[in-house]
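ok here's the first one, seq then struct tokens
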Amino acid sequence: MKSKKENIAEYILYLWQMEDYLRAFPQQADNYQELYDLYNMMHQENIMQKGHLQLAINALNELEELHSELLETEAPYKATILHIQPSLNIFKAKTDNPCMSDIEACLTLLYQVMMLRLQQKEISQETQIVVNDATQLLRFLSRTYHDQETTI
């Protein structure tokens, strides 16, 4: 499994991907201990149809807390989020959860684009620009999270 300390954004995306995989192919849970454990957690948390594991929710909350801290202390970070904000607002308005946070929107955008690429669908240049900005933002957040976790 991806390490949360190594890259928390990739960890969240990985969990989301495994949730979708296990929903589509529940029989695969018997083949690998990690999948079996995640499948059992999904059953216990009653998210076999939709929703996210508490592990993913907790990691997202940690990322949200760090995001709030950085908005207060890091001017370049704040400038990055202000730059991407209009695009994120447009994206959120097109989802079934327009009130999601900016960080959840970045992750959701990356996840949806990943799914489109797996289906070999074209990604517009405009969307790719937003994806690049979201990736840069999440990379900075993940690196900062990693640095904080390794100094504790």
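and now the second one, same deal
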Amino acid sequence: MQDEKLNLTQEWDKTFPQSDKVTHSKITFHNRYGITLAADMYVPKNVTGKLPVLAVAGPFGAVKEQASGLYAQTMAERGFLTIAFDPSYTGESGGTPRYVASPDINTEDFSAAVDFLSVQENVDPDKIGIIGICGWGGMALNAASMDTRIKATVTSTMYDMSRVTANGYFDAMDEDQRYQMKEQLNAQRTVDYKNGEYALAGGLPDVVPDDAPFFLKDYFDYYKTSRGYHPRSLNSNGGWNITSSLSFANMPIHCYASEIRNAVLIIHGEKAHSVYFSKDIFPKLKGDNKELLLIPGAVHTDLYDRLDIIPFDKIESFFRTYLK
């Protein structure tokens, strides 16, 4: 299968400075649905031989020029070959219609990255790990429960997108409310088909009222300011395809998390609104190679880009331990 031709930006357009310790390049690979994905590859300089590798994605509604790229570049500085990829239908990756999320296809995206990395000449295929941030932390766990080639998984500030879609924030949605949501989304499907295009949900607002919940202010501070804004980021701009939520509401992604045999490190901010996702999934994981690390005082987006808060020393030691 040949990758479709994508229009990739070659100049540096990340939300973080470029490191002089790694070599950066753009690459593409395809998944089993025929979608070509775009990624940034980071290779440590002055390191030879077959390297341990990491595939990184997230947050949900972000692009590789944001948090995932920062994680990938930082881990490359520490001796890992890394890629940060745009999931299907988003960023510079292919797939139509645009701005669609899928619990199946986006889990497959991680395995497609593993496919690509496994056949690179400078990669040790027995030393492949993944990092998922925010909603892609949930996808990473789902991939780890399915793809035995993944030897170690890190989730950072993880969301279970199936749970939050079906149950609402903090599980506040009941069956009647879920039914009403599905009625609205299916009505939107009819409108979209009639119009011949898919309506977008809209990203974050340009102004956040003082009485907005903290998590909205937290996201705004990252996606709508110079700290993290990017013109291709869904959250910074037009948002997801409205009807993407239907598949998540009906397809739980962590049914087999208890069967993950390889190592998992779950990292979350102690003060994050989303911390309950990590606290609830951790007891379901089995084995002494699983760990939950709560960062004191940290909120959700602190683990997107705060180099003074993200525990990169711990992440490195975790992968050094289990990618060997």
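notes on #2: The radius of gyration is 19 Å. The longest helix spans residues 175-195.
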